[in-house]
Design brief:
With about 600 residues, this protein is an alpha/beta fold. Helix content is about 55%, strand content about 10%. The two termini are about 45 Å apart. It binds one RNA strand of 78 nucleotides through helix 2, helix 7, helix 13, helix 14 and strand 13.
Length: about 600
RNA sequence: GAGGGGGUAGCUCAGUUGGAUUAGAGCAGCAGCCUUCUAAGCUGCGGGUCGCGGGUUCGAUUCCCGCCCUCCUCACCA
């Protein structure tokens, strides 16, 4: 018989079918099949308990009637799956070593898993918006998250079959430019885009401008006026703006390169400067926007918070009092562009959680607008993340204080990794020490950020971000290195030497094999809410299972069948670890 | 006030639609394991009334209600 790629799904279907001929089960019976504590079983069906309650029947009796029906219908092959009733009426399904072995022989490489995953998002056109920084600031540790989370989500979605456009929607058309231009003028500063200190100078000026406009409302108005001039096409401000953007983008690119981040398009807010008038016109035409205190705003009375009757007014401001555009204007224009130009089925925005209200209003406004104009509305998702906090427990900001720069963090991670690899593996050539250190350092940062739930805030700490032991990227990469070393020493390529492999036998072989089968479930749960930490958790468990196997069972042994099956386990382990690490944006290394 | 995040082991955090005698992991602590495939590793031990109080249920860290603590957002910043 053929081997099921996803046994849980097949068992679920069989139980539903079996239930149709058993009195006591309704037509919409859900077996509630889920993965189980491995001490009991691989999967357990809990649904009989709920059904028994409805039918006022004895759950265990109902469960055995269901199993009887399953058997008469052909049931499951008991050589592959053991079934038993347990506890108050759970049905346990345990995969036998025969089933595990068959699966491992059948589903052997990335192309098989990719094909399996493609059913999740295959054929969908998806635009993902990240890391979308504001311009004219140096990147600090707070900018780690949009880069790392955005990249992981993008790769995950792409792996699952989406036709993906990565759009870096940089913030290059907002009031921060008004502040910066004002500060430059006030300081009499001459910007030299070629100066190596250009960005530092801009950042210093921005900080000065930010403090000054905060202290003096008249200066804030002056800053807004500079922005209005820029948006109106003023030649001097436009020239200055161009230089600032150029300096800023070059600096960002140096960071992106180190994170292996590539955008398909960079369509910043300024790209939409000539597209906002249509937004104003249409929203007014459909009665979705109106004047309020001189600004053009959208209210959403059906939501108390965004209602015009709310105690604290919170309108969606789509055009400012002075006529200039803002975040909302350009985001609405961007929404339309992504529908018309990219034919997006889905748009994913990766930003800080403090923008939740903005996106809520954007999505509601967009939905009403597209409905009124008879346009198709893409699925809109805000993939938000928590804030990285400074030692003081407050969000890290450029405006105040002096946050750790992202480049400094990368450099420190690389240096620590370099010292470590030189100590652990002194015989490697210097160049390899350097390249391994770079890979491990950045990987450690990424994984540290990705491994906790993205909606959690966390406090910045060198110790946390640069850990190399335990549940860290180096631990996972190390598991890959140990597998590859075995193949290298045996003169085999990964994937070779497994002819005649028997089914897993020892407890550690069986535990590893079961963990390997869990890959697809891990993908599902990571994709569900676009939460990469589910993948991290899985990969750590897989690496741990490999660690136990590695310590308990020698691979290079004399008995050919044992050796073959252990090589097979090694090969599958490294293949899944490598695919999983790459989904997180981490490139494995051969040695470390 | 409204909306959102969080409150689980000394610390940092998992816990998928409520589920099974011991609620998991990493770090930190303690005790072991390198002449054989890389010890960035492996094995074991100790450590938790899952914020508090009710409710629903055969069963609640998970669902409902109330309360407490904490962080974030709330008119022209993005």
């Amino acid at each position: 018989m053929s081997v099921w790629f996803n046994p849980a799904r097949e068992i679920d279907a069989l139980l539903r079918k079996a239930a149709t001929s058993v009195p006591g089960f309704e037509a919409d019976f859900d077996p509630e099949l889920k993965s189980s504590d491995p001490r009991h079983a691989d999967f357990q069906a809990n649904g009989v308990l709920a059904a028994a309650k409805k039918a006022k029947a004895n759950p265990r009796a109902l469960a055995s009637a269901l199993l009887e029906s399953l058997r008469t219908e052909g049931g499951v092959d008991e050589k592959l799956i053991q079934v038993e009733i347990a506890g108050p009426g759970f049905i346990n399904f345990k995969l036998t070593p025969v089933a595990l072995g068959s699966w491992l022989r059948e589903y052997r490489d990335e192309s098989k898993w990719r094909a399996g995953a493609a059913r999740l998002m295959g054929g969908r056109k998806v635009v993902i918006d990240y890391p979308s920084p504001n311009t004219a600031k140096q990147m600090h540790v707070g900018h780690l998250r949009p880069i790392v989370i955005g990249e992981a989500v993008a790769r995950l979605v792409e792996f699952c079959g989406a036709d993906l456009v990565r759009d870096n929607h940089i913030g290059d058309w907002g009031t921060n430019f008004g502040i910066l231009i004002l500060a430059i003028r006030r300081a009499g500063f001459q910007l030299d885009a070629k100066s190596p200190h250009a960005l530092e100078d801009l950042e210093r000026l921005y900080k000065e401008g930010s403090a000054a406009t905060k202290a003096d409302p008249a200066l804030m108005d002056a800053a807004r006026a500079e922005l209005a001039k820029l948006q109106a096409g003023d030649a001097a401000n436009t020239a200055l703006w161009k230089e600032i953007v150029e300096v800023s983008n070059a600096a960002c690119q140096r960071i992106y390169d180190q994170f292996d981040l590539k955008s398909d398009v960079i369509l910043g807010e300024s790209f939409y400067r000539d597209k906002v008038d249509q937004v104003y016109a249409e929203l007014q035409q459909y009665g979705l926007a109106e004047e309020s205190e001189g600004a053009l705003v959208a209210w959403h009375d059906e939501e108390p918070r965004f209602s015009r009757h709310a105690e604290t007014k919170m309108p969606f401001i789509i055009r400012k009092r002075d006529g200039s555009s803002n975040y909302a204007s350009t985001d609405l224009a961007t929404l339309l562009y992504r529908l018309e130009h990219f034919k997006a089925d889905e748009i994913i925005y990766v930003t800080d959680g403090r923008q939740q209200d903005h996106f809520h209003q954007l999505f509601v406004t967009g939905a009403k607008w597209f409905k009124a104009s008879k346009r198709r509305l893409p699925r809109l998702r805000h993939v938000w993340f928590g804030t990285i906090l400074g030692e003081d427990g407050k969000a890290i900001k450029t405006k105040s204080g002096d946050p750790v720069r992202l480049q400094a963090l990368i450099d420190e991670a690389t240096e620590r990794a370099y010292q470590e690899v030189k100590k652990k593996n002194p015989d490697l050539p210097e160049a390899e020490h350097r390249s391994i250190a770079k890979a491990i350092g950045v990987a450690a940062l990424r994984y540290a950020d990705l491994s906790s739930s993205r909606t959690m805030d966390y406090t910045f700490s060198w110790e946390k971000l640069l850990a190399f032991e335990g549940n860290t990227a180096p631990y996972l990469m190390y598991a890959v290195v140990r597998v590859r070393s075995i193949f290298r020493k045996s003169g085999l390529a990964v994937g070779q030497g497994e002819e005649g492999a028997t089914d897993p036998e020892t407890p550690t072989e069986i535990a590893l094999a079961r963990k390997l089968l869990g890959f697809t479930a891990a993908l599902d749960s990571a994709l569900e809410d676009l939460r990469p930490h589910h993948l991290c958790t899985y990969l750590h468990e897989l690496a741990a299972a490999y660690g136990a196997f590695y310590a308990a069972d020698s691979v290079i042994v004399d008995e050919p069948a044992v050796k073959a099956r252990r090589l097979m386990l090694c090969s599958r382990t490294t293949a899944i670890l490598e695919v999983g690490l790459r989904l997180l944006g981490i490139e494995p290394v051969e040695r470390m």
